[in-house]
Amino acid sequence: MPWERKEQDAGRRKRAEGAVSVYFIAATAAFVLLNGLLIDFARVAAFRKQAELAAKSGARSVLSSFDPGVYARYGLFIRGGEPANDVFRRTLEGNLEQDGPRTFRFLDARWDGSEVTESRPLASHDVFRRQVLEDMKYKAPIDLTIELLSRFRGVDEAMKETKRTVDVLEKMRKAYDRRQAALEEVLKRQKEAGEKLEKAMAGYVPDPAVSMSGTRPARDVADIADAALMYPDYWTKRMEDEERSRAHGEAVAQWNSRREAAAAEGKPFREPYPAGGAMHTAATNAYASGMAEIASDLPDKLRKAEREAWEALEAAKEALRAAEEANEEMREIAANASDSAEEASGSVGAGAGAGGIGKEASETLRELRQSADELVMDNGFFADYAGELNGQQADASEIAAAAEAFGETAASAPDASGLGVTLRSRAERLQSSGAHYRSRYGSSGSVLKARRDRLDQLNSADKERKRMESEAAVQWESARSLLGGLAAIGGTSADREAFAELTELYESNLAWNEAEDSRTEPVPSRDPSQGRDEAVGAAEGWLSALTEAALNARDTLYFAEYAISRFSISDHAEVMALLAGTGEGATSPERQEAEFILYGLNHPGGNIAAAYGEIFSLRLAIRTMEGLIESRTLGHPLLVLAGALLYAVANAVADIRQLLDSGTVLLSKFLKAETAYSDYLRLFYLLQGGSAGQIARMIAVIERNTGLTLQKAYTYVSGTGRATLRLWFFPGVAGALGKIGQMGGEVAGNRYEAEFTADDAYQ
To answer: Which of 408, 425, 492, 586 is the most buried (most CB within 10 A)?
Structure first.
C-alpha cells in the first residue's frame, strides 16, 4: 500500500543516515588520534632537541669552570672551581621552560638525574702536548721569525761550508799524520838497517878505507887491512924462523955430539949451548891467531847483521806500503773535496746574500777544501823509495858475501903462501862495499840524510802546527775548567731537596705514561780537535733545525717557544756571582726551570753547566768558521786548520765569559747581531725538545709550583642527564610506537623518558 511504501522508504533513509554518522564519527576519531600523535611527536622532537642543547651547554659550562691560576701562569686549561655535577645540573635546569601563573608550557619537561664523568688528565703526554700546541700556535711563529731567524739568518749556510771544510781538512790531517808517521817508521827502520851493518863492520872493516898497497909488520890482527897488509911480513918472518930453527937444530945436534964425545973420553965439556932458533914466533903466532879469529867471527857477524838489516828493511817496506795507502786515502779525500766544492758553489747564494757570511768568505772556505790536494805526494816518490830499500838490501848482501869470501881466504892464509893478492883483493872488495854502505846508509849516510831532509821538508809546518795545537789544548782545559766549575756548584741543601722532589715527580710521570727518557749527561771531550768536530756537527744540526722549524717543524718549534716563554731561565749575573763565590739562589730549581726541563740533571749546577757547555759548543763552531777564514794566510792547509782551532777555542772561551758578564755576545765577526742566552736555549730546544722525558719534567715543574697533581687535573668531561616529558594524547599508543624505536626513548606511564649525553674538552 502506498503508506507502507512510504514507511519503508523512510526506514531506509534513516538507516543510511545512521551509517553516515558512524563513518563520520570513525573518521573524526582517527583524525583526532592522528593529530594528537603528531602533536606529541612534535613535542618529543622539540624536547629532544632542547635536551641535547642543554646537555651540550652543560658540558661547556663545566669546562668554563677552569683553574685560573694554571691558565694565567702556563696557558693550560684544567677543571677547577665548582664541582662538575653542580654546574652541569644547574645548566640543565636553566634550559627548561620556566613555570609561572600566566605561562603556557608547551614542553612540560623535567630532569630526573644527571652525572658528569671527567677524564683525560693533563698529566697525559698526548693531552699536555695538544694544549701546548694550542697555546703557542699563534705566538711561536712570530717569536721565531722576529727573535731568532732575524739573528741567525745565513749562519746555517756558513756552518755547512765550515763543516765540509773541517771534515775534509780533519780527515786529511789524520791521513797525513798516519802517512808521515809511516814514513818516519820507514826512515827509522832504514837507519836501523844501516846501524846493524855499520856496527858489525866496526873494528873489522876500516873507516875510512885503507890503501891496500904496502905492507905492515906482522903482529896481532885488528882488522881486514892488518890481515891483508901483514900477510907478506908474516910469511917472511915465518920462513926466516923456519930457516933459523933448522940451522939451530943442526947446531944443537952437533953440540950434543961433541958433548957426548967429551964425556966418553972423560974430558970436561965447557962449550955453551948453541944460540939461535926462531925469532918471530910471537908475531907469527899473534897473526895466525888473529887471522883465525877474524876468519871465524867476521863472516858470522856480518851475515847476522845482514839478516837483521833485511828484517828491518822488510819492516821499512811494510811501513812504506802503509804510507802509500794513507797517501792514496789523501788523494781520494782531496778529489772528493773538489767535487763537494763544485757542488756547494751552486748553492752559495742562499747564505751569501744579506745576512749571510758573504760570497768571499764562502769562496775562501771552498778554496781551503780544494787546497787539500797540495798535501798529496806523487806516486813516483813511493816507487823510488821502494827501489832505494831494495838497493840497500842488495848492498847489505854484497857486504855479507864479501865478508864470507874474505873469511875463507883468511882462514887459509896462515898456512898457505901465495894468497897475498887474493887476500888484498878480497879485503879491498869488503872495504869498498863497506865504505859504500856507510857513505849511503851509515850514521852520516847521504841517502839517509837526503831522506831526512825530504821528510823535514814535508813536515816543515808540523812544528808550528804542534805549537798551535798545544796552545789550543791549554785553552781547551780552560774551558773545561770553567764548565766544570759550574757543574761542581752544589747549591744549598734546600736546592738539593727540591731537585730530588722534581726528579721524583718527573720519574713518576714517566712511569704513569709508560714512557722512557733517553737522555745522557753531556761529557765534554778532552781533545780539542774532537770537541771542535762535534761542535761543528752539532751546530749544523741546530741551525738546520731552526730553518726546518720556520718551514714545517711545528711541534718542536711550539714546544721550544713554550718552554722559553713559560718557565724560568737562569740569570747570567747570578751565575757569574756563583762562579765568583759571592752569590746564591741561581742553583734553586725555580731559577732554572727551562734548563732542568731540557737536560734533566738532578744536581743544582748540572743543568746550567750543560746549557753553557752547549753554548760553548755552538760558539766554538761559529768561531771555527771565522778561524778558517782568518788563518788562510798561513798557507799550509793543516797549519790553517790548527790556527783555526786555536782561534776558535780561545775566542769561544772569551765568548762564554762575555755572555756571563754582560748577558749578550755578537753572533759572529761577520754577522753583527747580538745574541742572548735565551736565544741559544731556543736553538737547543728546537733540536732536542719535545721528548717524553722533557714533557715529564715540564709536568713535574708545574706540579711542584702549583701543588696540583696533574693526574687528577682533567681536561675532558662527559655529562649525562635523564629528562622526561609529559605526553598529552594517548600515551598508550605513543608507548606502543616507542617500543618499536620510533621515538629514541621510552614511555613510562604518561611520560616520555630519554637520556642525553654531551662530551667536550679543552683541546
So the answer is: 586
Residue 208: asked if its preceding bond is cis (omega within 30°), the reply is yes
Find the DSSP H helices in 459-526: 462-487, 493-512
Q: In the 8-state DSSP scheme, what is residue 220?
A: S
Asked if 536 contacts 162 with a C-beta cutoff of 8 angstroms, the reply is yes
Residue with cell 809511516: 182
pLDDT digits (tens, 9 = 90+) for 690-711: 788 899 999 999 999 999 999 9
Is residue 668 within 8 A of residue 155, CB to CB? The reply is yes
Instruction: Say yes or no to pLDDT of 735 above 70.
Output: no
The helix (H) or strand (E) run that includes residue 761 is strand 751-761
66 bridge partner residues: 79
Q: How many whole angstroms separate alpha carbon 635 and alpha carbon 243? A: 83
Residues 633, 635, 637, 638: is their CA dihedral positive or negative? negative
The DSSP secondary-structure symbol of 122 reads T
Long-range CB contact pairs, 376-380, < 8 A, 24+: 376/327, 376/330, 376/331, 376/334, 377/179, 377/327, 377/458, 379/324
In 3D space, the residue among 579, 176, 603, 111 whose CA is nearest the CA of residue 374 turns out to be 176
Q: How confident is the model at residue 532 (pLDDT cuts 50, 70, 90)?
A: confident
> Residue 464: is it exposed, middle or buried by C-beta count within 10 angstroms (0-12/13-18/19+)?
middle
How confident is residue 162, by pLDDT bands cut at 50, 70 and 90? confident
Cβ neighbours of 614 (radius 10 Å): 23
**Coil vs helix vs strand at 318:** helix
Cell representation of residue 1? 500500500
Q: Which three cell numbers stand for residue 79?
A: 677543571
Q: How confident is the model at residue 740 (pLDDT cuts 50, 70, 90)?
A: very low
CA distance 537 to 160: 9
For the stretch 743-749, contacts whose Cβ atoms lie closer than 8 Å and that sit 24 or more positions apart, written own/partner, are 743/41, 743/44, 744/48, 745/44, 745/48, 748/724
Distance from C-alpha of 164 to C-alpha of 175, rounded to nearest angstrom = 17
Interatomic CA distance for residues 495 and 474, integer angstroms: 34
Helices (H) and strands (E) in the chain, counts: 26, 6
The answer, yes or no, to whether residue 352 has pLDDT greater than 50, is: no
pLDDT at 351 over 50: no
C-alpha cell at 538: 752539532
Alpha-carbon distance of 514 to 504, in angstroms, equals 15
C-alpha cell belonging to residue 739: 617500543
List CB contacts of 232: < 8 A, sequence separation 6 or more: 215, 420
Tally Cβ neighbours within 10 Å of residue 422: 18
Phi and psi torsions of 443, nearest 5°? -60, -30
Task: Give Cα 121 distance to the centre of its chain.
Answer: 38
Taking the CA atoms of 577, 579, 581 and 583 in sequence, report the sign of the dihedral they define.
Answer: positive
366 DSSP 8-state letter: H
Find all residues with CB under 8 Å of 528, minimum gap 6, and list them. Answer: 469, 472, 473, 475, 476, 645, 649
| Cell of residue 633, nine digits | 794566510
**Which residues, listed in sequence order, are joined to residue 720 by a DSSP beta bridge?**
115, 757
For 523: left if phi > 0, alpha if psi spans -120 to 50, otherwise beta; the answer is beta
Look at the chain and count its residues: 763
Euclidean distance between CA atoms 170 and 333, whole angstroms: 10
| Amino acid, single-letter form, for residue 530 | Q
Q: What is the DSSP letter of 275?
A: P
| Cα dihedral: 6, 8, 12, 15 (round 10) | 110
CA dist., res. 725 & res. 722, Å (int): 11
- C-beta of residue 79 within 8 angstroms of C-beta of residue 67: yes
Average pLDDT along the chain:
82
**Contact call for residues 276 and 248 (beta carbons, < 8 A):** yes
Residue 418 has pLDDT above 90, yes or no: no
Sheet order of strands, 746-748 included: 109-121, 714-726, 751-761, 746-748
Alpha-carbon distances of 203 from 166, 206, 233, 379, 429, rounded to whole Å: 56, 7, 22, 41, 17
